[in-house]
Write a structure and sequence with these properties.
Low-confidence stretches: 771-785, 797-816, 822-827
Distance between the termini: 60 Å
Structural class: alpha/beta
Number of helices: 27
Number of strands: 29
Mean pLDDT: 85
Strand content: 15-25%
Largest sheet: 7 strands, mixed
Length: 895
Amino acid sequence: MGAGRMNVEDMAKSYEPGPIEDKWYAKWIEDGIFKADPNRDKPPFSIVIPPPNVTGSLHLGHALDNTLQDILCRAKRMLGFNVLWMPGTDHAGIATQNVVERSLMKDGVSRHELGREAFVERVWAWKEEYGSRIIGQLRKLGASCDWDRERFTMDGGLSRAVRRVFVELYNKDLIYRGKYLINWCPRCLTALSDLEVEHRELEGRFYSVLYRFADGGGGDGITVVTTRPETILGDTAIAVHPRDERNRHLAGRRVSVPITGRVIPVIEDNMVDPEFGTGAVKITPAHDPNDFLVGARHGLESIQVIDAHGVMSDEAGTYKGLDRFEARRAITEELKNLGALPAVDGRKHSVGHCYRCNTIIEPYLSEQWFVRAQSLAKADIEAVRAGAIRFVPEQWTQTYYQWMENIRDWCISRQLWWGHRIPAWHCADCGETTVSLETPISCKCGSANLTQDEDVLDTWFSSALWPFSTMGWPDDTDALRVFYPTSVLVTGFDIIFFWVARMIMMGLEFMGREPFRDVYIHALVRDEHGQKMSKSRGNVIDPLVIIDKYGADALRLTLTALTLQGRDIFMSESRIETYRFFLNKLWNASRFALMNLADAPGDIAPPGGGDEPHLRLHDRWIIARVSDVTSEMTRLLEGYFFGEAARLMYDFVWNELCDWYLEMSKPALRGDEGPCRKAASQKVLYHVFRDVLKLLHPIIPFVTEELWEAFAYGGGIIGRGEWPVAKSYAGAESAERDMAFLRDIVRAIRNLRAEVKLPPQKAAPMVSLRLKDPDKTAPVRENCDMVKLLAKVGEIELSPLDAPKPAKSIATVTADWELFFPVGGMMDVGREIARFEEEIKKLDAEMKRVSGKLANENFIQRAPAEVVEKERTALAEGEARKRRIEENLEGLRRQ
RNA sequence: GGGCAAUUAGCUCAGCGGGAGAGCGCCUCCCUCACACGGAGGAGGUCACUGGUUCGAAACCAGUAUUGCCCACCA
């Protein structure tokens, strides 16, 4: 009896993921199959997870990203690799601080009332309570991370790495501090890097402002154009281009700023575009990045008229205390009254917004820390150019180069409380700054009057170290030796610059090796209309809801199947349904197999292949196909063709295994063909399912695990089982060819049957199958076999092969064979005549095309011989076919 | 301003030099003892446009148009 195999009566009629998923996940953890061991004697394969924010909740982007990583890890484990998938979370500076601040606000407390130390404690407490939520959600998805190694970007080891990197970069003069104009968020009250600013096209205004001459020379004044009239309070010059014929004569003159009356010079600078506007531009060094540079070149004064909160400062005179946008309206009004506002034009321009809170960014003059990026970027470009790092899909390489080649210094200091405090101490006595691994006791000057820099580091600074900091760096660990560089990084294109580029930067600098060989960039998950999912749009699909409803496997399979290289994924619940149905199909096909294995022995030797006795064509065919699919699947996963891999399995299982093999094996399994055929069929069934479940396991681990157990394949858990081996055999090719032929015949019969409305099952049509060319003998034996098979599966009743051609019949041609279908009075003669006439018309057109082609000498000469041959055969067959149709037509007309 | 991608059936997309494919949707028939979360059949397309390369182009090249995305110190 089917030793250990599950009784089909115990299996639900349709697949219910319910408790199955939790059960298996717990079992996998218990058995420790996700654990990596550096001492294992197997080739290493490693991935570091893109650490989700501790504040995060699993969204579809995570679900996709981690499903793909999980597929790779599970497949590699089965392929015999020593797999490390390193998990963890990111402290997410601003995001987390904002979340905790908001929760404080509910109690009516601000972080300032609480004080820095107490606030940071609150964040840690919050992290303890909620920080593992996303980890739990990743487990629900089935992520096979080595959880014992879970890290957090602010844990002890990683903080040590961060400090070490900062100090070393500082000592190499790759980190510096200075007062510059940076991107400032007036709501978060912190500096932001260029990347953290999101530019959006907004409908804005161009204000033309008249600056009257104040030097007694001739003329009225100079008109300049600005989008930000409120900044004129901080103007310290007007600039023109030195070679601008129109305006050059203005250089050296003096004008007075409207409202303030401040007298400022007209200077020359190359930065001015003589073609733009009036060719003259106002210079506000404290409030515009370009103007800041001009100011520095010309030694201009910087007057800060807007403060950190985006409110007009003391320098703004009567406007002091007004919000920057209120001030804009008020100042515009006053300019108008002064007659200094000749024109206001509407115009689109792009405005920077904070990527965390969407507040409009204010360029702000302040003291910040920077990483000198240009010198580091050279090695980063080289590493990709030399092939040490490869982007998949390749198109991202271009994006990467472009950014790296134009890289600017990275502002790494944030005026936040949550994050890695900058390891720099300022001396109150001499003003010197000491940067050090350990907290210094005294300054170089001997003073003990030291205070640590208030700022923390950009979150992405610690993320940049993730591939090696998580493995124990700066210590020399086994993990680093075995698993660094990691094999592949899987992430979305939205963080190529934020994260991928900076990991490359830090990895090369501190490890001397690239952090990963391949970078697989996947697309964004959007809603079914291609819209970005967002809470405000209300189109968010919550993966956890999906998992509850359909199971993690359905979600994983859907995301995987929709992942085409480089394309965005449009997701909707109805799409998930398609793939859920597949799981059910697999489930029921397995039930069918198990049902038919009930009386088979427990351990079944694998079928031999072509020469195995008692195998029929379809048996040999499915064995060959499993082998093909195995090598194809292996190749696809190797090349990160996830969508293709998922669809390969989907199509194979459904359209080949279920629709053809299982159907055709029914007579033998029923015992209609005797005990030998039954045993042989059971053997094939058993081994086909074994390989299919293995191949599917990386994508849909839960259901395959459950079925693996039901089949009692043994050898432990499927995740540990070996990947199937593609094994072809002599005759595999002909089995596939013959099967294709057989399928054509069956389709032809069904087609006819549907046309004459012969109800299925009620009566099988009488047909005869005859070799077109009686001299040809080669496939006869095989095809007799096939015809018997057809009869067995109830498609046809046979008339003797040598029976005379029925008087009134339809002839359908397939390869070397003709199929005769005696129609009796079963069809609508008029309709059939029309159909034949239509067909002849089509044939004529086709033959005209082909014969035209064959008459073309160029074609004959230059096209490959087999192509020409193919066309010749097509022509000959077409003619023969036409003749036959005409014959039949003749017969029909006589009726 | 620079760059990247896309444009093929009603919808979502494969195909990337030898005469158009899938899934969903639609129509017809069938609750056949694995599965109606199923089975069988069918209808439906100038492959965005214009040139070029080629014996041959949906595919390669150039340009145009439309859409989406990224980058940029567009006062």
